[in-house]
Design brief:
This protein is α+β, with helices and mostly antiparallel strands. Helix content is about 40%, strand content about 20%. It has eight helices and twelve strands. Strand 2 (about 30-40) and strand 3 form a beta hairpin. The longest helix has 23 residues, at about 240-260.
């Protein structure tokens, strides 16, 4: 109840003194959000970030890249740094991961998701510098050190081999990325429209990394959904396919460490600086 009071007080301070609570969302990876009703904006979402870095990333994304998605994503209404929080419009729908759809409807949802991702990746011009493959290889070394004896020497060598192969693909352009592009962040409405949410991991990165988790966790059993998404996103080049393969090993490594580590830093805390000098955090793409 205390958390709800904090979120509601923020909404009343930042947006509408007469705001009323509607429902409580425990969220993903300990993020908590309140759905509230307001006079001028209708229902809104009040979200308090666990770390300032995530707050900074999400505010930047909403101000810079998300407007390109139009009404297929929330709008930023208010923000505060103390505590790090945002108020955004509530968009209709439930996570695609919670919908029981027939195959045709699910394929259509993935076609919509592909168009949304394509639009997000084009929201700002690509960047070739700095060398993002080298940075990812350095991130892999960070996670290898963090893993310690929780991974075998052969697995460690395998990850390093993939990171060397990744570096050989350079130079590769970076684009605005979501970095937690999974069905839980795709809201499917009763109108059949897919909308994208949760931009707290968003930053410049290698665009195919947004497809890594789909490629490893969903598409092996549902190749039809891969075809549907790429129908609108566009075909993957050989370099894209190789990048996904190599980065899948980095993603698997970070997931392994987070699952086995008792340290909260592994799942919630800041884990470094990206190539542009911005702090990055856990649970999204490393």
């Amino acid at each position: 109840m205390a958390d709800i009071s904090v979120h509601l007080a923020l909404c009343q301070r930042l947006l509408d003194t007469d705001a009323k609570p509607v429902s409580w969302h425990p969220g993903h990876a300990s993020t908590r959000a309140l759905r509230a009703s307001t006079t001028a904006q209708g229902e809104v979402i009040v979200k308090i970030h666990r770390r300032p870095a995530r707050h900074t990333q999400e505010v930047h994304a909403y101000r810079t890249w998300v407007p390109a998605l139009g009404d297929r994503a929330p709008r930023l209404l208010a923000t505060t740094d103390d505590p790090p929080a945002i108020v955004i419009t509530a968009v209709p729908g439930v996570p695609l991961s919670q919908r029981q759809l027939d195959p045709e409807s699910e394929q259509d949802a993935y076609r919509q998701a592909g168009q949304l991702l394509k639009t997000l990746h084009a929201a700002e011009p690509p960047r070739l510098e700095p060398d993002w493959t080298a940075w990812l290889a350095e991130r892999a070394e960070y996670w290898i050190r963090l893993a310690g004896d929780r991974i075998t020497p052969s697995y460690r060598a395998e990850v390093r081999a993939h990171m060397r192969a990744l570096r050989e693909l350079a130079p590769l352009p970076a684009a605005p990325c979501h970095l937690d592009f999974m069905p839980r962040n795709m809201l499917y409405g009763d109108d059949g429209i897919v909308r994208l949410i949760d931009f707290e991991h968003s930053r410049y990165d290698l665009a195919p990394r947004d497809l890594v988790r789909l490629a490893t966790r969903i598409w092996p059993l549902r190749p039809d959904l891969r075809e549907s998404l790429l129908n609108t996103y566009g075909p993957l080049t050989a370099a894209n396919e190789n990048l996904i393969q190599h980065c899948a090993h980095l993603d698997a490594l970070t997931e392994e460490v987070r699952m086995r580590s008792p340290s909260p830093k592994c799942s919630h805390g800041s884990t470094g600086i990206d190539p542009l000098g911005h702090p990055i955090t856990g649970s999204g793409q490393p």
